[in-house]
Amino acid sequence: MKRLRVTVEGKTYEVTVELLDEKGNPAFTPTASAAPASLAASSIAPQANTPAPAASSEPGAVNSPLAGIIKSVDVTSGQTVKQGDQLIILEAMKMNTYVYSPQDGKIGEVLVKPGDAVAEGQVLLRIQ
Amino acid sequence: MAIAKFLLDQLHERRQRAAQGGGPDKIEARHEKGQMSARERLGTLFEPSTFQEFGMHAEHSGQLFGLAGKTLPSDGVVTGTGFVDGRPIAAYSQDFTVAGGSLGNIHAKKICDIMDYAVHAGMPVVGFNDSGGARIQEGVESLSGYGKVFFKNVYCSGVVPQIAVIAGPCAGGAAYSPALTDFQIMVNKSANMFICGPEVIKAATGEAATMDEIGSATAHATVAGNIHFVANDDAHAVALVKKLLSFLPSNNILDPPHQLNTPLVLSPDPGMNELVPEDPKAPINVHVVIQRLVDGGDFFEVQMDWAKNIVIGFARIQGIVVGIVANQPLVRAGTLDIDSSDKGARFIRFCNVFNIPIVTLVDTGGFFPGKAQERGGIIRHGAKMLFAYASATVPKITVIMRKAYGGAYLAMCSRDLGADLVFAWPTAEIAVMGAEGAVKILYRNEIKNAADPKAREAELSKEYRERFASPYQAAELAMITDIIEPSETRAMVGVALRNTLSKRETRPPKKHGNIPL
After folding, report:
1. Beta A95-100 vs A2-8: how paired, if at all?
2. Which of A64, B365, B374, B385 is the most exposed place for a label (fewest CB within 10 A)?
3. What does the pLDDT look like over A12-36, one tens digit per residue?
4. What pairing do the DSSP bridges indicate for beta strands B183-187 and B125-129?
């Protein structure tokens, strides 16, 4: 059943429409196919997991997520940063990859400069 | 005249005893740990009163090591069918309160029987795994039981969808039954899964390993890529099963539950244009693109924590159920590597076998370069993507958003691999390789002999980019259906999905292809 509002020459009619099959019986409507309303998208999102950092990585070190060329270093030694601040842009495979601060802290040693080629996992800078 | 009362009393008493599993105390202990009982899991999955049990009065057949005369209600596994959103689903649920959910002869037979029924009736199978492992008292009969279950898993594979919930321990050979199903959902904290546990590893090789490192839901979801979803608890696991089923057909001869009464909206979505940055090197978060593309922003992501440079999952676009495969430029520059190829290929094959159209969103600079990739077998793994796409006969619709370079362009369902429609945004860069690399090869001598080699190289790169880093060369060669504004994507893909609903493509008969595994 579907309710429709139809306007004919300025006059509005409200009509109820029902789909019928060839024999005049109500046509099958696949109710089973509807996603159940009780399952709101947000309530059943799978749980996101972040892996614990590899045991070998030294505390405070920010490692390169992939091999590439340093495009810009956006922080200087001694600067205070918050978790999520952009630290470095590196370019690899024709795309920029942004490196964000994993924690609040103060920038210690910066080990790379623009133009440097870095390997995956290489320490880019340290945060105290 | 009526049936003798004692017969009914006897039945009710037996039913009650079986329903209690290992007894109220053991069930209470589970509740205290925040876990459901085997029957409660099925009760939460199925619509009320729709559960039809198979083999409630089954008993173990063991005669040795103190088993004779002992009762194990339902032999430690509850099996049957019930309705989920109005569709029949088969399920089994191992009962940890009965002999630790251990698998014996009859226990295995019950699981096999329900799978046989499901494959004949054409209904999905959901299994709750919660078992200490083989029932050692039953000896090799128990081992044989596992073998029979594995065989049934494979027999059902590609006929009915199979979903495994790992809700408790799942150790040794037992882990291979879930591994043979289509999707694995693991309950965080209460479940663990491994082939050799920490003690066995220590004894065999001396290597130290913790359960968290090798068997936890986090390890499987983020590092190993063995499972597809992590649930917070049993109720969440059941909700994930239901959500997953809402996208799947009951079997391989039915269509997935499309919502065909959804009106087709053909007006543009200007917001999509705004998502595309001017700088071709600034990455787009492909999740945001997917959210805008799918109905109600409802994207059910699969394996969200592993090989994140590729994003896969289910959604509906203008009512049609689709599997989405998309490069994620935010992670490893959206490149294809060993893990992302494995992840993508398996998903593509699932969609194909269950009639789910595939929408591919392309933004990849290529296959990830490196020693670890080459030595790890990227050729063999990357080939899975090519194989999976080329062998898929479901509707295949590709949207080249930006970068589509080299072999990775082909591996993301190009026209040549059988895409039915390929749309490209004006930002698309379809080329055999990047400009810098290409001019170095094409103009080696010219650059070397130039007065200012650097300047000449830059100039040539620019020329190359203008000529090839666009969708127009590919469009001239009719490798593309159409070049569209990003804002037109939802409308165009929506129309394409309607048009290809009855797509039919037959291939030469064969047992199966030989995918490079």
Report:
1. unpaired
2. B374
3. 888 877 767 666 665 544 333 333 3
4. unpaired
Judged by CB atoms closer than 8 Å, whether chains meet at A49 and B221 is answered as yes
pLDDT tens for B281-312 read 999 999 999 999 999 999 999 999 999 999 99
Global confidence as pTM: 0.89
What is the pLDDT averaged over residues B269-274?
Answer: 95
CA angle B370, B371, B374 (to 5 degrees): 90
Assigned token pair, B132 = 């200490």
Q: Does A47 reside within a domain?
A: no
**pLDDT, position A29:** 42
Q: Are B321 and B357 in contact (CB under 8 A)?
A: yes
- Please tell me whether residues B139 and B285 are part of one structural domain: no
Amino acid type, B211? M
Under DSSP, is residue B143 helix (H, G, I), strand (E, B) or coil?
Answer: helix
Scan residues 193-222 of B and list those with Cβ closer than 8 Å to A: 217-219, 221-222
In this predicted structure, what is the pLDDT of residue B458? 87
Joined together, the tokens standing for residue B7 give 């017969």
Task: Find the domain containing A66 and state its range.
Answer: 61-127
Average pLDDT over residues B490-515: 96
Question: Which DSSP helix (H) or strand (E) runs through B66?
Answer: none
Give, to the nearest 10 degrees, the angle between helix B234-245 and helix B38-45. Answer: 40
Instruction: Tell me: do B23 and B72 sit in the same domain.
Output: yes
* Model ipTM value: 0.76
* Total beta-carbon pairs less than 8 A apart between chain A and chain B: 108
- State the Cα–Cα distance between residues B84 and B516, nearest whole angstrom: 37
Say whether B368 and A65 touch across the interface (CB within 8 A): no
- Report the distance separating Cα B223 and Cα A50, nearest Å: 10
Determine the structural domain holding residue B344 and report its residue range: 270-434+470-499
- Label residue A48 by pLDDT band (50, 70, 90): low
Using DSSP, state whether B409 is helix, strand or coil.
Answer: helix
User: Is B129 in contact with B170 (CB distance < 8 Å)?
Assistant: yes
Of A36, A43, A97, the CB nearest to B85: A36
